[in-house]
Amino acid sequence: MNKVVLVTGANSGIGLALCERLLQDTESLQLCLACRNMQRAQAARSALLTSHPSAQVALLQMDTSSISSVLAAAQEVKLRYNRLDCLYLNAGIMPNPQFDVNAFFKGLFSSGIIKMFTTGQGILTQKDCVTADSLQEVFATNLFGHFLLIRELEPVLCDADHTSQLIWTSSSNAHRPAFNLEDIQHQRGTQPYSSSKYASDLLSLALNTHHNKQGLYSSVICPGFVMTNMTYGILPSFPAFLWTLLMPVFWLIRMFCNNITLNPYNGSEALFWLFKQKPESLDPQAKYHSSTSGLGNNYIQPRKMDIDLETSEALYEQLLHLESEVRKKLKLKQK
pTM for this one? Predict the structure, then answer.
């Protein structure tokens, strides 16, 4: 029976690299690319079909920052498929990043250089905005939209006789100090990206607590430091030649820190590896890191996450409450 896989944020970067690897490795696969921009999604599909002409690759329009878009997409998925084997929660944004150039160049010549490159800590802050649904955009895009999608797709994900996987693209930038249970949308902070990724780590644990008995398992990965559009967006005015000059620095750091994966193929290693594992054998409190050795060999490093059951459950309950409020508002709008 063909496996059915849905990937959010699949039209570029790590998501597209993952789709290419899945099609290359698995003959019987129904792949669905869930993307916000359908023009880019069509281009990604065409590229995949050029390499794999007989592949089954479908498109789905979905913007995880929009409640109505997520609900409509979920309805479409349930019409197309009677089950999902794997749902990759990969879509994400880091809007308007503020880059501390002085801190960056100081970090290049300090003992904290490896931590700076692998986590972005100390050099990145972001300015968030509010969506049409009155939610913080980073929270909605990176976390809540995915949570609502999972909730809507429970009928095709949960089956005690059949295991399904949720796989989150998190980050080593997920820091506990950036997250606050009293401000889960991070309205009052300057690190919404870090907060949203830490929240996804917590949510993954809670989803395992609530759904493992129904055959649904959740895991978390970190792609490492990858040169993608999001990375380049950190310094939109940074001249291209300076990125080129920095590449030898990245290669050198990778000799000591294997989180510097650099390209989307390497960054997708953990996403691809998890697809081939038995979900029930995985550690729900581990984050699976894509790693690349100094010689260019890819491998996986599981690391315990800085999370706990009590906080994960508290977040889960808050998300359920927010979901209820959002649905009520949506019904009022539709009247």
Answer: 0.88
How distant is the alpha carbon of residue 261 from its chain centre?
A: 16
- Confidence at residue 261, expressed as pLDDT on a 0 to 100 scale: 82
Q: At what angle do helices 192-211 and 145-152 cross, to 10 degrees?
A: 20
Q: For residues 275 and 242, is the Cβ–Cβ distance under 8 A? A: no
3-state helix, strand, coil in the chain (%, to 5): 50, 20, 35
Q: Which residues pair with 219 in a beta bridge?
A: 167
The string over 223-241, giving b where at least 16 C-beta atoms fall within 10 Å of a residue's C-beta and e elsewhere, is: bbbbbbebbeebeeeeeee
- Nearest to residue 270, comparing CAs of 254, 284, 286, 289? 289
Asked if 193 is an active-site residue, the reply is yes
Helix (H) or strand (E) holding 86: strand 86-89
Q: Is the pLDDT confidence value at 237 over 60? A: no
**From the candidates 88, 193, 265, 316, which is the catalytic residue?**
193
CA dist 228 and 60 (Å) reads 22
DSSP H or E stretch at residue 299: strand 298-304
DSSP state of 168: E
